[in-house]
Amino acid sequence: xxxxxxxxxxxxxxxxxxxxxxxxxxxxxxxxxxxxxxxxxxxxxxxxxxxxxxxxxxxxxxxxxxxxxxxxxxxxxxxxxxxxxxxxxxxxxxxxxxxxxxxxxxxxxxxxxxxxxxxxxxxxxxxxxxxxxxxxx
Length: 137
Fold this sequence. Notes:
Shape: elongated
Radius of gyration: 16 Å
Number of strands: 8
Distance between the termini: 9 Å
Structural class: alpha+beta
Number of helices: 3
Mean pLDDT: 96
Oligomer: single chain
Low-confidence stretches: none
Helix content: 10-25%
Strand order of the largest sheet: 1-8-3-5-6
């Protein structure tokens, strides 16, 4: 089984798409779900979905860790063709997962109580991100 999820983003942050994944897996039985983001400036994460402060703190941390290219600390960057958020987005994507493997049992991803599946957008402009999904049984 394969599909592609499209996630519309509105700038940097974590965008949960757990419900869409669960709905797609519903009739799948048992297997392993692989998710792969088809872009080089965003990431995938399994992260807490109960407290929105977790998402805000993660976004703030990575912004502080890898600031925009126009920040003086990033003067060494040479790839600036697409704006000050471009190369920092590639750096963040290189530091975080771009694919996930999640066990599925009885048609349900085996996520923990407070876990959700997120696309972590690193670019400032809105995007339509594609996440390829494969469920093997």
